[in-house]
Amino acid sequence: MAKRSVKQRNLNIEVLRILAMFLIVACHATLHLPWLLHVDSNLDFLPGWKSALAYLVVQYGQVGVSIFFIISGYFLVRKTFTWQRIFKTWFQMFCYSFISLIAVLIIARFTTLPNSIAPLLSGDDLWRTVLWSIVPFIYGSYWFITAYVCLLLLAPFINCLFKHLSRRNMAALIIVLSFFSIWILLGGRTTPWNNVVYAVLGYIMGGWIRLYWYEVNDKIKSSYLWGIIVLSTIVMTVFNHYAANRTWLATFLGWHEQIKHGIQIFPMIIGSSIFILFTKLDMTSIKGFGHKVVLKTASATFGVYLIHENMFWYRLIWPTIAAIFPTPNSFISTVSVAFAIVLAVFISLSLIGFIADTIIVHPLTKIILKGWDTPHHTN
Q1: In a domain, 104, yes or no
Q2: Is residue 1 part of a domain?
């Protein structure tokens, strides 16, 4: 891999973080907007290429998730474990979920909550909502952040594997974990694949790229990586179409139940290819104000996730948008309007996330961690 300054390399990665979170927001918009998949209505998916393409967008959300796991492995494989890193991630999740609960409770005192939110604060659901907000890690309120925290806990052990196993053995481990991701598609009813295994695989792939990619960099051209991305995307789309049509074989193997997740190794393959391509980009032209905007936006990406996947706000964001925008009447208008909505949501939540982190989360984190960074607190 070509050598770059740390500053330039980090800028590449920060732009990639923004792209990854944009893909995640696009995934959730596709799932919740009524003129796309609208999973909130409990309607079954329809056969045809429209559903196949819609679920492709959903699966590209997993590409975004994969990129975050890969970035973690790339940067942490050579770093020492610290509890502060885990605390910062957990505390950010806690702040967003707890503050959201308090905000909704205050709003409920002065006005009537929307029908999509009000049931969460009544009857037995009230206590589940409180638990969801106060102990988000234990309750699994945000699957991605929960898996990420688990990954940070496992990182030092994974790093030991890199120290003591050969490149070939680590590649073999990647293959084994990758097989776990397609196990369910072979007709199985259970699979060892879960969110933590998913995160671990991404971490290992990121670490492998960091430690070993330079050995094969000259042999694998960028055009090959683009070919992998295009071919993987085509296979994912065809799978979605075949599964949505509920053919005999697809039904027998249970593919119609897996259409949302698709062939789960492909998002990781695409994410790895995109990651490598981004490390090759020259972003020296991004300077001054543009450079600052990239860094600030990238720093707010977790906030974007924590807001738009919050149990209160996602029930408010997407129905509100659906009420504002009329249903598109063509494929081109659907793509255009959906892109504009995703961009607007991403920018708006980035601003909110940046403000929340700057005013609340980061200052509180510094206060709590004050005096923590001492030898007896660092492993």
Answers
A1: yes
A2: no
